[in-house]
Amino acid sequence: MSILEAKQITTTFEKGKVVANDNVNLNIEDGEFFVLLGPSGCGKSTFLRSVAGLEKPDSGEMKLKGEDILDKEPAERDVAMMFQKVTLYPNMNVYDNIAFPLKIKGVDKDKIENEVNKVLDFTQIPEKKYSNVKNLSGGEAQRAMIARVLVQDPQLFLLDEPFSSLDHQLRVHMRKEILKIHKKTGVTILFVTHNQEEAMRLGERIGIMNDGRVEQVGTPKEILREPKNKFVAQFIGHPQINFIEGEMSTKEDKIFLQIDDKSYGPLEKDELNRIPESEKVTLGIRPEKLKIKKGKVKGENKFTSEIELVEDTGKDVYINFSFGDASLQAEVPETEEWKMGEEITFFFDKRDLRLFDENGARIK
Question: Is the whole-model pTM more than 0.85?
Answer without folding.
Answer: yes
